[in-house]
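Tutorial, part two.
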Amino acid sequence: MGEWYFEYEIQVNRPGLLGDIASLLGMLRVNIVSINGVDAGRRGMLLKTDNDESIQRFISIVSTMENINVTRFREPKVRDRLAVRHGHYIERDADEKNTFRFVRDELGILVDFMAELFKKEGHKLIGIRGMPRVGKTESVVAASVCANKKWLFLSSTMIKQTVRHQLMGDEFSENNIFILDGAVTRRTTDERHQQLVREMMRVPAIKVVEHPDLFVQHSEYKIEDFDYIIELRHHPDEVITYEIIERNEMMSQNDHFGGFGGEFNF
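Running the prediction step on this input gives:
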């Protein structure tokens, strides 16, 4: 059965408007999978039918209705599905179409968004920007669980600074989610780790890079290589800066007394 995303803007919110649209879909044997308000004055629907002619007749009829204005009618994209599920569209950069913005209060929709990306097969390089303790790593792990994927840290500061220089057994699986901290990977002098990162970048799997702007510094990779960039902030006006991140990295490198700045190499 084919799926479509149908969205309309309400011009006159008269009683029975939604019922009329639903009744029309029922008469044409088009199923409503889900429905929700997606922004002020707009509704979105996920539709399904095995008759393409019925869906074309439906869009032809509703396009003539004076009380609504059809704003979208297409095969559903990830953003469409999430808009119907959560009640609003995730914010996308006006100039950089592959950049999506979230605040900490939207961790639920962020996890859903990444989980949808993780479910797709093949190579995807995803960068995630954000200040310390905003929820970047936790969101990536939660999305991996939602997508039923195993996650592996190539480099991380989640508990202690971790740098991997080899993988074993099923860790090589293309079905895994590979996570690395761009700040840690950039600073390490372990050539075995750098070689592992280069090898994994060639594997047709999902790679998630925290602090992608630091990762591409002094490397062969560019920001343009990323398929998606996610920005996570505590509040919409927060400025993402790397001064605190780099200072924390320098402190962790100088910590030799078993604190949280310790390092695991394996």
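Residues 107-119 form the longest helix (13 residues). In part three we will examine how such features are distributed along the chain.
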